[in-house]
Amino acid sequence: MLFAGASAAARWLLLSMLTNTSVILVVNMLSGCGFVGFSYSLIRYINDNVPKSMRATAQSLNGILGTFFSRIIFTPISGILADHFSVSTVLLGNGLLMVAAVLLFAFTFSKAEAYQKAHPVLEE
After folding, report:
1. φ, ψ dihedrals at 106, nearest 5°
2. 63 contacts 39 by C-beta, under 8 angstroms
3. How sure is the predictor about 122, in pLDDT bands with cuts at 50, 70 and 90?
4. Distance from C-alpha of 89 to C-alpha of 13, rounded to nearest angstrom
5. What is the pTM of this model?
6. 12: exposed, middle or buried (C-beta count within 10 Å: 0-12, 13-18, 19+)?
7. What are phi and psi of 86, to 5 degrees?
8. pLDDT score for 32
9. Per the domain annotation, does 63 fall within a domain?
10. How many structural domains compose the chain?
11. Quick check: is 124 in a domain?
């Protein structure tokens, strides 16, 4: 998950600065790393933590919400922001937001792991 977030952050940050079309095409390959890594992590999380009877529902809900928020809500907002500020500013903002999210996730995940090691759950 951290690799997926870091590759997405790197992609946004690099795209905010680049102007060479060939380099931009190469940098966009980081999108695959982020998307595949995030999708795999989420599917693993659902399979490991959701009861069997609810897994299909959880995966469907993930797909619907992901599509709804990314394409229906945030695409027009990004377009409006790009018109007001510039595309490179929006990409830079997205990159910085992703860096903050990755750092927050890394910190939270390490704290949760430490807590689980200190307080193991007894198997029933």
Report:
1. -60, -45
2. no
3. low
4. 10
5. 0.80
6. buried
7. 130, 155
8. 87
9. yes
10. 1
11. no
